[in-house]
Amino acid sequence: MASSEKSTSKGQAWFCTTGLPSDIEIEVDDMTFHLHKFPLMSKSRKLHRLITEQETRSFSSVNPQTSTALTLVVAESDKKGKGHEIEDEEKEEEDEQEIEENGFPHIKLEDFPGSSESFEMVAKFCYGVKIDLSASSAVPLRCAAEHLEMTEEYSPDNLISKTERFLSHSVYKSLRESIKALQACESVSPLAESLGITEQCIESIVSRASSVDLSLFGWPVNDGGGGPDLSLIPGGASKSSKKQNRDNTNTELWFEDLAQLSLPIFRTVILSMRSEDLSSDVIESCLICYAKKHIPGILRSNRKPSSSSTAASENEQREILETITSNLPLDKSSISATTRFLFGLLRTAIILNASETCRDLLERKIGSQLERASLDDLLVPSYSYLNETLYDVDLVERILSHFLDSLEERSSTALVEADGRSPSLMLVWKLIDGFLAEIASDANLKSEKFYNLAISLPDQARLYDDGLYRAVDVYLKAHPWVSEEEKEKICGVMDCQKLTLEACTHAAQNERLPLRTVVQVLFFEQLQLRQAIAGTLLAAQSPSPSQSTEPRPSATRNLTIAEVVNGNETRGGEEVDPGKWKKTVRENQVLRLDMDTMRTRVHRLERECSNMKKVIAKIDKVGSPATTATDRPRSWSITKKFGCKFKTQVCDSQEATVVDHRSRRV
């Protein structure tokens, strides 16, 4: 049997060229099928009933001389699948005229499951032609067979049993095929759900997705894509490598297939995954892939406008985003690239004006894994006209607060170093200092915001404050109009004891810093130099390895300090090379000269302060009446303003303590 299509006045036509003239027309959508009664009636109880009813009406016609048959137009419902009605009189007259012209009945099937493509396969099956089934075609064909009542009881080896066997043996046993079948259920959704096809597809997807090990694959969440390159390993380019690449490709494809589903069905799949306690990594990977497919511009590396005419509208994107956010697992993800994706979702949520609940969930999720973020992730532009700054500083402050809260919750089980520092906290320290240096140049950044973010981290988070000093220096350079009081408050976020010698040297010559900060820096710089000199002297005076096999612990420790200052790295228990003694003595002399230079600079500053004090006192004496014995000296306020008493003991290396004016979160 062969079929051909040709255009008619009513659209396309499908003919069965068996050598016998067709004796019935069946119209489905815009396609008219010219068929024979017997093959259809032998397989479909519904068609048998409709044709029989039509023939009965044809013979009982009131005017049999002018019409050979009546046309029965059947308006079929999706839910009931039964029942018929005769169209209005005008339509009936047109059909009767058509019957007079053609000489055979015409049946119209409205809202047929799977449209004309499915009925074409039904017609081929009725004529005994072999049909090729796939996951996409089997579902609408199964619904069409149910609609036409092509049961096993009516005819052996009928279409319902044939499609059921195919679904059970070829579709439900494959993850990708189950996803394709589920996508096909969308066009015949009510009937597919009533037949249980949708539920079986979802159960198959969930059960087979639970066996996927995402740790073997780089996709879909890693931007680089692909799995590990085994060809770089000796013997790695083998059958196992080819098998893993093939599995990797299959994993990519089923994620992409899942992203093709409509949002309602995709939501149902995700809820089923969560109810079955599926791996959170698998769920997150599904959500990430779906978001990348339907929400453009989530990742900054892919912000080209979508050329597809079916791109989701703004409201649809908002609905997709809120659905994805609400289904994200709250626990910390083991997928490192998820953090960048979450920041992309957060930026999109702000642009689309998503709900507060949606944005708060994203901020908390990001805060739980902030140590995996990069500086580029934190640079979220201020999309609201209420924010004057270029980047959203309040957002970063909230995320940091969530991170510290989550850090406290898992502190009992988290990995902590011997000094009490958490590795995650140390990573976030560098991240926040980098962010402060980046936003410090913003002319609209208020000193209060800069200060609050700088002190948000606890004291033990920073090993050294060089990054914080850099941010402070950039801020003072970009905001020369700030008052001395604000400068002192901003500089108070630093701990001068945590500055390295390089930072101390730079700060001592920095004219932008207030005088009080410079004095503190000079003091601690002098103290570090003296400690380094003392360590070098002790190391130089210690016996050589030939004289003693066990160097004194104190000498070894002080030598390490000196070498660190000079840029060399040694282990604490290593023996000292005798060939370094001469070099060490020369370095000791250089340190002595640096010490003298530093002492000279400190004395010069003290003299300048003393001269300022005398000039101020003279001005007060000339411009104001003499003070009484009970009056407080005017110079006291000036001394308080500069934060020091202009005594040489302040910069003395023997000073035991220095007042810390900072206020931090502990």
UniProtKB/TrEMBL annotation:
Biased composition (Acidic residues): 86-100
Residue ranges of domain NPH3 in the record: 252-528
Listed InterPro entries: BTB/POZ_dom, NPH3/RPT2-like, NPH3_dom, SKP1/BTB/POZ_sf
UniProt keyword list: Coiled coil, Ubl conjugation pathway
Superkingdom in the source lineage: Eukaryota
Gene3D superfamilies (alphabetical): Potassium Channel Kv1.1, Chain A
UniProt-listed SUPFAM superfamilies: POZ domain
Domain BTB intervals: 22-135
Pathway field: Protein modification; protein ubiquitination
Sequence segments annotated as region (Disordered): 77-100
Residue ranges that the Swiss-Prot or TrEMBL entry lists as coiled coil: 588-615
The family this protein is said to belong to: Belongs to the NPH3 family.
Xref: PANTHER family: OS12G0117600 PROTEIN (PTHR32370)
Stated name of the protein: NPH3 domain-containing protein
Protein source organism: Brassica cretica
